[in-house]
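Quick start: what a row looks like.
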Amino acid sequence: MSKSISVGVIGAGIMGEALIAALISYGVDPQLVTISEKRKERADELASRYGIKVDDIEKNVSTADALLLVVKPQDMFGVLEQIKSSINTAAVVVTFAAGKKIAFISDALGTSNPVVRVMPNTATLVGAGMAAISLGDGVSAEQTNFVTGFLAATGKVVQVPEDLQDAVTATSGSGPAYFFRFVEAMVDSAQELGLSSEVATQLTVQTIVGAAKLLEESGKSATTLRENVTSPNGTTAAALASFDDAQISKIVATAMKAARDRSQELA
């Protein structure tokens, strides 16, 4: 699938905009990207910002070679009902709706369109995302390369069997919120120890940014890096011991299982 294909984007929220930016960064001509969005002012804003086109949803899906469905899970069935009689039956359909299976998309459309299911995360918005894709029947190598190619412009991409998408949701999909909650707790605790809100925030955020960069670039495992910074009977060892006493591994495992289970319920 070349970069000179027509791409339709349904939904112009924050994630929709991030994907539009990724398509253009990947090399798709902005004039080949068409957005359909019920909020006219939002659609016009994106058209002005990125040089893309705006059209009604039925016309958009009839000409798109790749169709990106970036709508809320609860809105997906209504959108599929609206487009099923107009869709280009050769188009690859790429769905970003959490919990909605490939079979759900295919059955609602009632067409033979190949479907790719994607679970992105919020870091997509800053080009540091983590996306996992699953392929439905009939997705060609060319279509796969196109999807993985433009998603790579938003961060990193892995391919998993669809039955593992709920585990992906619990890991990278919901994962940024776990990180943000931990930052909140560190900032609050630093203030309780006497630091100002501004200083506590700066210390915490930069510490975690630096730790993440070290983890990514050092080539060492999290276990090795943790051991390297932990002196026996030192301050770090004392803090980590309190984590272990609170059963941090069990806390995290329970939380991720709850996210996985909820993802399965939403299917």
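That is the whole record. Residues 197-218 form the longest helix (22 residues). The domain at 173-266 is CATH 1.10.3730.10 (ProC C-terminal domain-like fold).
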